[in-house]
Amino acid sequence: MYTFNELSERVNKIIQELDIPETPVELYEPIRYILNLGGKRIRPVLTLMTANLFKDNIEDALAPAISIELFHNFTLIHDDIMDKAALRRNHSTVHTRWNVNIGILSGDALSIYAYRYLLKAPRDRLYRLLEIFNDTALKVCEGQQLDMNYENILEITVEDYLTMIEMKTAVLLAGAMKIGGIIAGATEKQINHLYKSGRYLGLAFQIQDDFLDSYGDTETFGKTIGGDILCNKKTFLLVYTLGHLPEDRKKEMVEILNSPLSDDREYISTIKNFYDSVNIQEITKNIIADYFRKGMNELAKTEVSSERRLWLEELITNLISRTK
Question: Which of 5, 74, 175, 262 is 20 to 30 A from 111 (CA-CA)?
Answer without folding.
Answer: 5
